[in-house]
Amino acid sequence: MKIGLRIPGTARQLPFETFCQWCRDTGFQSVDLGTVTPEAVATAARYNLEIGTADLPGTRDLLSPDPARQEQGVAAVRAAIESAAALGIRRMFCVFVPEDRNQSRARSFDIWKETFPSVVATAAAHGVRIAMEGWPGPGPTYPALGCTPETWRAMFAVCPDPAFGLNYDPSHLLRLGIDPFRALDEFGDRVVHAHGKDTEIDPERLYEHGNVGPTFRKPKPFGESWWRYTIPGEGSLPWGRLIARLEDHGFDGVIAVELEDYRYHGSWEREAEGLRRSRDYLAQWVR
């Protein structure tokens, strides 16, 4: 396995070459890209950084009830896959969140199963694997498709090709009440990429107001009071066991630190500290 990272907020303001040099000097081996350009790929290569994933554009349109938007989304996604493959990128990252947050997941699935199979076929033809993240989307409706075992089973039944798989992010599973180990045991062969992010569960806050959230208290950023995202090692997940279980299922890819922790947010200095702490913590088990 390798330890990589997604580029956090203020780091995007740095020259990309400066950031890549910092990544190499800090011990990171991979970087996830948003927009793919030949220059970004070449710069990462100069610093011996693998491209962990590149973001897949157009997925919102794939869930649109408008046939014209669907067609537009399919064309954009397929073109992005072809362009990324031409640059040697083999993994692409996506989430499925509809533009209308009130659109039900069942409705999104009915649309998705018509629009996405051709995307998977394009990915397979170009040697690219798609990693779907299980972020549930914004509250209070949590409209994202593909964040639970229930929906993963249905989606993989529609698109069984291994070109379509998962971004394994146990922080989302924990906050949703889904056993991250059981999820690995059922879907381990579908893991394309992983995120290094933790979740802290606060039982006292959960007792005070349950999972509906506080009435009088403002939640901390990157959370809902009774839970919050943290860097690995500062939440509730047993990372040593998780990484061993990933190994058990044959995963030998990238665990990319996704920095969403209010304690390491708001300035490059804080972000750099959070990234460094995350890498050093995960390095205890990654081999």
Layout of SSEs?
Blueprint: E1 2-6, H1 16-26, E2 30-33, H2 38-46, E3 50-55, H3 67-86, E4 91-94, H4 105-115, H5 117-125, E5 129-133, H6 149-158, E6 164-168, H7 170-176, H8 180-187, E7 191-196, E8 198-201, H9 203-209, E9 227-230, H10 239-248, E10 254-257, H11 268-282
Parallel strand pairs: 1-2, 1-10, 2-3, 3-4, 4-5, 5-6, 6-7, 7-10
Antiparallel strand pairs: 8-9
- Count the E strands: 10
Number of helices: 11
In terms of quaternary structure, the protein is single chain
- The overall average pLDDT, rounded, is 96
Helix content range: 40-55%
Helix/strand class: alpha/beta
What does the largest sheet look like? 8 strands, parallel, barrel
Distance linking N and C termini: 6 Å
Report the principal-axis shape: globular
H/E series: EHEHEHEHHEHEHHEEHEHEH
Radius of gyration: 19 Å
What is the strand arrangement across the widest sheet? 1-2-3-4-5-6-7-10
Strand content is 15-25%
List unreliable stretches of 5+ residues: none
Describe this structure as you would to a colleague.
With 287 residues, this protein is of the alpha/beta class. Helices cover 41% and strands 16% of the residues. The protein has an eight-stranded parallel beta barrel with strand order 1-2-3-4-5-6-7-10. A two-stranded antiparallel sheet has the order 8-9. Helix 2 (38-46) links the parallel strand 2 and strand 3 (50-55). Helix 3 packs parallel to helix 5 (117-125).
Main features:
287 residues; alpha/beta; eight-stranded parallel beta barrel; two-stranded antiparallel sheet; 11 helices; 41% helix; globular
